[in-house]
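Let's sit down with a protein and look at its sequence and fold side by side. We need material for that, and I hope you will provide a protein of your own picking. Once you have written the record down, we can walk along the chain together.

***
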Amino acid sequence: MAIDITADPIVTTAAILGTDEFWIAVGTPIEVSTGLYAVRSQFPYAPINYSLNQEFDCQADDENLDIPIVTATLTGEWFNICLWADPIEVTTLPTGDWIVGTLMNAAPIIVATSFKDADILLEVAKKNWVKWSDIGSLDFAIGRANVAGERPLDWSGWVYDIRKLGNKVVAYGENGVSILKPADKYYGLETVSKLGLYSPEAATGTDKIHYFIDSKGQLWEFGETLMLLDYSEYFSLMSDLVMSYDVENNIIYICDGTVGYAYSPVDKSLGSGPVNVTGIGSKNGNLYITSPATVDIPTFEICTDIYDMGTRKFKTIRSIEVGTDLTGNMEASIDFRVSNKVAFSNIGWHPVTLEGVAHMTCYGLEFRFKLRVSTYEYFELDYLKINGFVHGYSYTEHTLRSISE
């Protein structure tokens, strides 16, 4: 912020005594520019200390001098603008049709009322509590029969999901996973993990088997036993992910809107998948998929683990043979490195011929073999055969040696 001050020209009149001659001298305008720096504002403002004021008098004693008129222009932008508004009033009205026996939770009000013949209960939500109703009823209120009930879980935070698993139910929450098994009119508690879900939708499954991802990004299979599948190096980099189970094709989709994966419980394999699937279901022989936008199927790509072919000698790969029933086009590639202390390099993608062979030359100590398919087609991969030779063997041996996994 700066202040520019410009004054009118100074006009001076002078005369010589005894003559009729006089002169008028006109000076240039007085221009004053000031800069405002290091300004500190305070609200509410401090009271004025009049003892610090400075004054000057433009009217000299016994002389009739004109007081100069100075015009100042304030430039720049105003800061610390305060806007005051009246309190915001919000009115909420319920819409839709009332359903008999509906339970509604809200905080922090507690209201008991009725509408026609439907009893509605509004009460404070409890984070780590679960409730069960009377048999065949949606009424969760504890009555004289003492069948409906409630209990807390032994971990803090919200309960995200409750799923049936065999003859028990599983509560998935913010900070734990617990089994609730009926015992007489009550439910016994057995907590199987004190790691909660990665996000509220990070659990899926059927009545016989569940899959969930914990707060560390680890994938678990929960059936008769709890089994760690991991893949945390992929899932821990995702945001609030959503898991969807395609029961018809036995595929689990894990998506966060930006990244997507598909896991096969049959093959126990993980690959890239659609990024925005939020739900899958089958009805009357039709498969339905929900998504906030068009489902984009990415290029299918798989990569093996690290192989050194059982020897720490250097090797040269000549070709890869692929056993599959795929009818579309496929490409193959190799990641390689000459030491386990350096990062992998890649030789690029090479086409797989109709005979199932990808010809390429690659030298290294350790390898990862990769395949990709650009068309959407179901296929099975029977085997990969890696052809090449190991350096350091006799001529006869290394020319006939076939490296296969």
Remarks:
- The helical segments are 232-235, 395-400.
